[in-house]
Amino acid sequence: MSGPDALPTTELPQEVSSLLLPLADGHLLVPVDTLSEIIALQSPVSAFDAPDWYMGELHWRELRLPLVSFEVMRGNPMPVLRSNCRIAVLSSGNGEGDLPFFAVVLQGTPRLVRVTPEELAAREGECAMGELMHVALSGEVAVIPDLLAIEEACLEYRNRR
Predict the structure, then answer these.
(1) φ and ψ at 147, to 5 degrees?
(2) Which one of 51, 86, 127, 140 is CB 3.0 to 4.6 Å from 131, fit for a cystine?
(3) Sorted alphabetically, which SUPFAM superfamilies does this protein's record hold (predicted)?
């Protein structure tokens, strides 16, 4: 047998454990496997001549991680950092690359959600920097981040300094 009929058939999962990560202007929706750790808010080491969204660098598990403001990356003002803010350490999805992890400021605690095809719908709208897709999950709006694009933007800044 050859052609498409010869390809193994794999079923798509009927449910994906995911997290809604709270931002000042909405939520990010990521698979649970993307989150490495939630840590307390801390001041990053300043970065010279960095883009506004690149808040500095954190030391985490013997790595230097960029701390990103997703709100600023997509064109909104820097949010006020309150006592309930956290930092999410996310995997870029490129474990063998130069930047396997980066950190994002959250405006609260992530919430576990189960994503099914029936509950997830694409939304219209132009994607800004760092955004892969606008979605609605059971009526709640969120953005699926483009983790590789965020990694590339961070590396681009690091390589030019």
Answers:
(1) -60, -40
(2) 127
(3) CheW-like
